[in-house]
Amino acid sequence: MKRLLSVLVLVVLVMLYSCTKSQEPQLKFNDKGEFRIVQFTDLHWDPGMNKKQGTMDLMRKVIESEKPDLVILSGDVITAAPAQSGWNELADFLSSTGVPWCATMGNHDFEAEPGISKDDIFGWLEGKSGYVGSKGRCESGVGNFALAISGSKSDKPAWIIYCIDSNDYPLDIEIDGYDWIRFDQLAWYNAKSKAYTASNGGKPIPSLAYLHIPIPEYNNLREIYGNRKGASISSSRIGSGLMGSILECGDVCGMFAGHVHKNDYIGIIDGVAMGFGRTTGFDASCPLKRGGRVVVLKEGTREFSTWISTGDSTEYVYYYPSGISLQDEQTMEYLPAVDVEPEGRGVRFDYYEGGRFSHTAALEKAIPVRSGITPNISLAEATVADSMGFCFNALIDIPERGVYRFYTYSDDGSKLWIDDRLVVDNDGSHNAWRADGKVALEAGYHRLKVMYVEDYMSQVLKVG
Questions:
Q1: Engineering a disulfide at 250: which of 73, 204, 408, 435 sits with its beta carbon 3.0 to 4.6 angstroms away?
Q2: Whole-model pTM?
Q3: Which alpha helices (DSSP H) does 142-293 contain, by range?
Q4: How far is residue 310 CA from its own chain's centroid?
Q5: Residues 75-123 pLDDT 10s
Q6: 350: Cβ contacts below 8 Å, ≥ 6 apart
Q7: CA distance 116 to 77
């Protein structure tokens, strides 16, 4: 009899567990192959102040207008006592929206009141309706977890969202500034990424990363879009190695932080988009209109679009991987197609030797030693390794009206023109280096010109 009762209890427990699991929110692309994320950051929610109502109203407006599939809170969320009461208020509000949500911590969350920790906060969040985050198992940081977004017609992961704790302050008083992401966190990310890649037949699954404090590599962005107020991004002075891990794993194509209330810009470096969210909280100081950052992922590609939403306006629409903005499309001068018919396929080239070519301007005074037609832009026609150069000319067929980004990757210098307009300037004697440029083109044929010089050591030219 006792054994029968034990079996019955076990069956009931299994049934209850199954029911609970079935009610967990499912992250899945919709029938259009899209998945929409809203990032709210730096709420600085003070449970004892009336400004929290303004923050809640804004979040509700953004959620209602954008209709996200996931909400991510990227740190400095509840920053005043009583902290647990504040988290409960916020969780109740987010649960009422019916949108799955999660959070990663900032440097001020555990400072809300003496004695609380990030472990406490994640303990409070467990079991909240709609909550899909996790405390994680890393020794360093709390809230390192990954979320898989399944395909519209499959249960297999189509995109991955990594939430990473950027930590707070160094324990060593001789190291000033902010803390950095630790080795065990990198080991966790690497292991998760490789496991996902292995499950996908060896092909990395496109991913995003969310954290609070930006990593130092944000300083390397050369072309940004959005608001940047001041030179400092308040990152750790010490590189964590996260960027190196991301490039080796090959999955993360976008990273989004908070922390700097005056910034909401985005840019691309080394093929990875790095952006800030828009400060959301009315208790936080911010010179910008409060809002959130929206990211719309595309199923089956490494593409997304992103913008800032204030609930009643959309700002700074930006596309990855092109790095082109809606403003570019609307305001740039479009070059008309040329009225010409190509004589045949291939690229005309002039090849130069002799003397030291440290800049492409040197070719303008030189006489080519050989000319001809080659199937594509390459250095295959060169007969010497150093002190040589090329001038390539061709027609390119632009399929539709739009803004196009071109690049050259060269050692040494190179320049690229479209219809006599300089688009990419990668000139000079230097190591292998990539330079980009963008141009607005009408559909049809356009003239492409590329000049390249090899000064000494290493010969590289790639055009795209």
A1: 204
A2: 0.90
A3: 183-199, 242-249
A4: 20
A5: 999 999 999 999 999 999 999 999 999 999 999 999 999 999 999 999 9
A6: 368, 370, 371, 390, 391
A7: 14
